[in-house]
């Protein structure tokens, strides 16, 4: 079996697939990196295959690793990019409500609520990976990330209530104004945090003095 970690061949003689994966993880961790992708013969294996780590017909295993700080920063930037799309979709949903295209707006709103959950979950996962409580992450002005998360929760709950009650005018205002402002604040926070993560990582890898 041929084994590669970031295109570097690994010599792991007479090893099972499970041992190969363990060895690749250990070598990546020794370099301060994490395995982010595994390919079996050029294809992504299923979760069941990875969990079982038993595929005797696999001839080549390729593992790709990433620096944890770079991975966190990229995740935050992706979430900020998703907010660009969300804000635009929220404005379209608001316009649909104002012109009476209620069914289109309702379908979009359900999707918007789910995507907001993913953005918030992404921030929480990154904060956990950084061992940072949300209250310690700067938000906008004097507000922290925890404050922004609390405000978002209230907004989303209000939207669900107005949606259930069929209050279309109030719903249009919430989505087209309040939630768009919230998206802009979150976008700024996420990009600022990503920049901070990259800057601290560059300083640490360069061996610079602590701030």
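Sequence proposed for the structure above (211 residues):
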């Amino acid at each position: 079996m041929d084994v590669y970690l970031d295109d570097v061949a690994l010599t792991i003689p007479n090893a099972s697939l499970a041992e190969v994966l363990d060895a690749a993880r250990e070598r990546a961790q020794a370099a301060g990196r994490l395995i982010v992708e595994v390919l079996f013969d050029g294809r992504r294996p299923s979760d069941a295959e990875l969990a079982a780590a038993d595929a005797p017909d696999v001839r080549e295993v390729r593992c790709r690793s990433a620096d944890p700080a770079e991975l966190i920063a990229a995740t935050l930037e992706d979430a900020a990019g998703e907010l660009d799309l969300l804000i635009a979709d929220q404005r379209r949903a608001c316009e649909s409500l104002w012109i009476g295209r209620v069914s289109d707006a309702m379908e979009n709103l359900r999707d918007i609520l789910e995507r907001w959950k993913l953005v918030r979950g992404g921030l929480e996962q990154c904060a956990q990976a950084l061992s940072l409580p949300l209250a310690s992450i700067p938000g906008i002005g004097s507000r922290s990330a925890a404050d922004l998360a609390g405000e978002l929760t209230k907004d989303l709950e209000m939207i669900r209530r107005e949606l259930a009650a069929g209050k279309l005018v109030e719903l249009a205002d919430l989505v087209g104004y309040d939630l768009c402002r919230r998206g802009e604040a979150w976008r700024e926070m996420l990009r600022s945090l990503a920049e901070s993560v990259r800057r601290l990582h560059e300083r640490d890898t360069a061996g610079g003095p602590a701030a």
